[in-house]
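Reproducibility note. Readers wishing to regenerate the assembly model reported in the main text can use the exact inputs given here. Chain order matters: entities are listed in the order in which they were concatenated for prediction.
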Amino acid sequence: SQKIEQNSEALNIQEGKTATLTCNYTNYSPAYLQWYRQDPGRGPVFLLLIRENEKEKRKERLKVTFDTTLKQSLFHITASQPADSATYLCALLYNNNDMRFGAGTRLTVKP
Amino acid sequence: EAQVTQNPRYLITVTGKKLTVTCSQNMNHEYMSWYRQDPGLGLRQIYYSMNVEVTDKGDVPEGYKVSRKEKRNFPLILESPSPNQTSLYFCASRSDVLGNQPQHFGDGTRLSIL
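Running the prediction on these inputs yields the following C-alpha cells for the assembly.
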C-alpha cells in the first residue's frame, strides 16, 4: 500500500533562514502533489500544487520540487518568519481521486 | 466569501447514539470529501463524492455513511458511534473531479464518543 513520510514531526529554525521540509513516498508516483498549511484549530489551507511532469514550482517565498526518481518532494520557505510557524502537510493524488496525506511537519520559526 | 462550513464544531456524545455532522460549501464544487485526522496518522479519507448522488468509499469508511442529495451539502452520518471514532473530522471540496485543483477545507468538527 502507499506510504507517505514527512521527514520529521517537528522542525525548529531561526527567523530569516530557509526551512526545508521533506515528503517521501513509496510505490508508484502520484499524478499531483500538493502542500497545505494547517494552523491549530483550523482546516488545512492549500499552498502549492506540482504535477508529476514538473520539476519545480514557486510562489513568493515558497518553492516545491518533485523528483519522481527519488520519490520525494521538497518544500522550501525562504526568509522564514515567525508567522510561518504551522504544520505543513503534503498530499498525493493517485488515480484521480485516491488522495493520501502525510502526517505533517510542525515548523517553528524563532525570532 | 467562499467557504466550507461544518456543524457542529465540537460534540461530546455516547456510544450508540446516532449523530450527523453537516457540511455545506458555497462554491458550486463538484467534488466533496470527508477526512478524519488522528495524531501521527495524518488525514485519512472516509468517503468522497464526485457529484450529486455519486459517492464512494475512501480509506476508512467503516462505521460511516454519507449522502449527496444536493450539490452543496455532504453530511457525514455515524449510525452507531463507538469510542474509536473519537477524532477530528474535516470536510473538503474542490471544483474538479480530476484532482488538479486545490481542496478547500472546513475548520473541523471535534467528536468525542464516550
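We highlight two features of this model. The radius of gyration of chain B is 13 Å. Residues 36 and 89 of chain B are 4 Å apart (CA to CA).
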